[in-house]
Amino acid sequence: MAAYRADDDYDYLFKVVLVGDSGVGKSNLLSRFTRNEFSLESKSTIGVEFATRSIRVNDKIVKAQIWDTAGQERFEENEVFSSFCNCIGMFLIVLFFDDENSIQDSDFSSCPACSVIGVKYRAITSAYYRGAVGAMLVYDVTRRVTFENGQRWLKELRDHTDSSIVIMLIGNKADLRHLFAVTTDDAKAFAESENTFFMETSALESTNVEHAFTEVLTQIHQVISRKALEGGNDQTTLPKGQTINVGSRDDVSAVKKDGCCSA
Questions:
Q1: Would you kindly state where each structural domain of the chain is located, as residue ranges?
Q2: SS3 string of the chain?
Q3: Which of 144, 197, 204, 195 minimizes the C-alpha distance to 170?
Q4: Correct CATH for 3-73+131-256 of 3.40.830.10, 1.10.3720.10, 3.40.50.300, 3.90.79.10
Q5: pLDDT tens-digit profile, the chain (263 residues)
Q6: Quick check: pTM over 0.90?
């Protein structure tokens, strides 16, 4: 399954999200896979960022669109954000604040176009997960609390995605084996109980990073192929831009692009 360089040439576009606590290495996993880069001075992600990379999976070119967010994006009671609406064009800008009391009681009702914006952080959750067909739940093998928080991350993930989503549990920073606070057996047992895949990685040493992403994309492709067959779709004749629903929710989908490179 070799990497494929032409960014605009692909058969499928899959959205994959990275979830997990701050500091577990999500951003470095993203940069290692998409750009083969690693930064020892990587700072916590602010807001949302994504990167893409195309690889060959089962004779098809799959373009992965991988989304990363800050680790504090779990939507709890003390998480606060504000949505400011530019009425001209109805463009929403999301602002994040460190001071949880600064905008908690903000009132946007004075803007007629914003009367429906009573949204809190939940709106960003939905936008982040919308359309995702794969996810990597990342924890730091040296910080057990990041592993224990995995249950809550899984709940949030499953609350906002379809049951067909492919999930892989990732134990990152495996190069720090002498500092392990989570045993491989514990992680495997958790993954098995939650019906997810599991792999230990090191973004620093590039250990298993390629393997993990490739496995997730391969599993997604298998789900999409199965759903297409069950729906009676011939994948070789789907029209350009055809959306294949992988579950019951309309916003969980994968896009097949026709007429690009032939396998």
A1: 3-73+131-256, 81-119
A2: CCEECCCCCCCEEEEEEEECCCCCCHHHHHHHHHHCCCCCCCCCCCCEEEEEEEEEECCEEEEEEEEEECCCCCCCCCCCEEEEEECCCCEEEEEECCCCCCCCCCCCCCCHHHCCCCCCHHHHHHHHHCCEEEEEEEEECCCHHHHHCHHHHHHHHHHHCCCCCEEEEEEECCCCHHHCCCCHHHHHHHHHHCCCEEEECECCCCECHHHHHHHHHHHHHHHHHHHHHHCCCCCCCCCCCEEEECCCCCCCEEEECCCCCCC
A3: 197
A4: 3.40.50.300
A5: 555 445 568 999 999 999 999 999 999 999 999 999 998 876 665 557 889 999 999 899 999 999 997 655 444 433 433 333 443 333 333 334 334 333 334 444 455 444 444 344 566 778 889 999 999 999 999 999 999 999 999 999 999 999 999 999 999 999 999 999 999 999 999 999 999 999 999 999 999 999 999 999 999 999 999 888 887 654 433 344 444 444 433 343 455 555 443 33
A6: no
Tell me which residue has tokens 């009702």: 109
